[in-house]
Amino acid sequence: MIDFSKKEQTPEETNALIDAILIEINLSGFAVVAPAAAKLIAEVAGSSGRAALLQVGIAEDTDIDLFNVVNDFAVDFADARGAELVGMKYNQWDELVPNPDAEWAITDGTRELLRGQVRQAIEEGWSTKQLSNAVQESYGFSDARAEMIGRTEIARAQAAGTMEGWKASGVCTGKFWVLGSEHDIEDDCDSNVDDGTIPLDEEFSSGDEYEPVHPNCTCSTGVETED
User: Fold this and answer.
1) Looking at the 3D structure of the chain, how many domains does it have?
2) DSSP for 46-65?
3) d(CA 175, CA 2)
């Protein structure tokens, strides 16, 4: 039980209390999303990988092994990303367990989105019920955020599959960053453009191999092939 009764606290005490409250917010239910997310991610990554092979002139009827490589990658990528998305990973027994190193996990993002509300609750002396109601109605659990996450994860799956197809093809010599049509604020994406053409297996300046760099990123990666 979290105690809101102490009115005067140091900043350190307030931050510690916020962390304690956020930890107590149970987000384990997100784990049920992993299998369904993995299925969709696999479909998107696999389709994009096959399209990438076709794009650079690789035909399925003559190079079936390359298409199998892309399909296998899509399944493995999807399982890992579906679990990571909800802050989990699969152990050696194929059981979902917490992943402290998960990137872009919606569980971590949800807690950070709630941090401001929790701070307000402490400063204004809300009851536990008041905070609970505010959490349920917050952006962190909204349809708008769900849509944003869906768009971003589909973009990631498309880019991952495409990159695997280019790598498997053996005819692609480099990649470059292309700013999206809706890109209107300077950020890491602009630095990626400045990188010019780099090897397929290298990271851009942002630390990413491919898009997205951030939620709702509309950028893409271009490819160069052998003459």
Assistant:
1) 2
2) HHHHHHHHHHTT--TTT-HH
3) 51
Say if 2 falls within a structural domain: no
Shared domain for 158 and 181, answered yes or no, is: no
Give the helix ranges, DSSP H, for 56-181.
64-85, 106-124, 128-136, 143-169
Same domain, 124 and 176: no
Q: What is the sign of the dihedral through the CA atoms of 75, 79, 80 and 84? A: positive
Contact between residue 128 and residue 136 where contact means Cβ atoms under 8 Å apart = no
Report which of residues 128 and 115 the model is more confident about: 115
Q: Are residues 75 and 140 in the same domain?
A: yes
Backbone angles phi, psi at 210, to 5 degrees: -160, 175
List the structure tokens of 109. Answer: 């993002």
pLDDT, one tens digit per residue, over 123-168 is 787 877 887 788 788 887 788 888 898 899 999 999 999 999 999 9
pTM equals 0.83
Side chain identity, residue 105: A
DSSP secondary structure letter of residue 94: S
What is the span of the domain harbouring residue 207?
171-227
pLDDT tops 90 at residue 53:
yes
Q: Which helix (H) or strand (E) holds 16?
A: helix 11-24
Distance CA 77, CA 93 (A): 18
